[in-house]
Amino acid sequence: MSVFEPAPSLSNTSRSNGRFEAILFDLGSTLIYFDGNWTETLPESNAKLLRSLQASGIELGTIFVDRFRAQLQAYYADRDTDFIEYTTTYVLRDVLAGFGYDSVPDPVIRDALAAMFAVTQRYWKSEADTHSTLEILRQRGYRLGLISNAGDDADVQTLLDRSDLRRYFDVILTSAGEGIRKPNPKIFWKALDSLGTLPANAAMIGDKLGADILGAKNTGIYSIWITRRADMPDNRAHIKTIQPDATIASLGELPPLLSRLDLPNHS
To answer: DSSP string spanning the chain?
Structure first.
């Protein structure tokens, strides 16, 4: 069975109790958003990375940063084709090896990446309706999961703690931690298994048609597209070919939508 085929015994199962049991969320541009300027923050991130490595005795110059960023972009293109996650740790080690540093200790790598991500982490903020929406869903008894496509698991974990979001979720999965990316159904199935529910009893909310919505559809999960930050080239390319089951403009619209969907005539 291809990784893009839903499990035949479960994917088409009707909701067993007439309501959703589990709600899955994307993170970036769904629950949190970047309130900064990437053009301004990336040079600072690069400088922090380089200084951290230099402080550990690794003699590198700015040409290393250029190579690292170019390699990242190349891997980003590959991962959106094969849906395998190439982590920032992997890329950093690969580039360092090209400069003759092929045995850098793990703490040095981790400290350098932490310094790099600390710059952009300052600019990620929770959406105004994130906490209130998640509180409502928890009070209603839904089990909540998070699936984030990200090249660095530690970065996601830091963002969750800084935004005080961890407490809402029963399961948190990142592509960096699992080695696979949305829309690969395997990462959705792992979340469902952890939550103890079937695809037909789950909904997925995210901003990316090609990752969140397609992944949910490939797994048999009800797909909800959140559009307030969804105007991006990737989505425009998929707008006519990937259709969500429902669309909302903000998270505040989610609880009323779920209430309607949980009525018997929607089961």
So the answer is: --TTSPPTTTTTPPPTTSS--EEEE--BTTTEEE-S-HHHHHHHHHHHHHHHHHHTT----HHHHHHHHHHHHHHHHHHHHH-B---HHHHHHHHHHHTT-----HHHHHHHHHHHHHHHHTTEEE-TTHHHHHHHHHHTT-EEEEEE--S-HHHHHHHHHHTT-GGG-SEEEEHHHHSB-TT-HHHHHHHHHHHT--GGGEEEEES-IIIIIHHHHHHT-EEEEE-TT--SHHHHHHTTT---SEEESSGGGHHHHHHHHTSGGG-
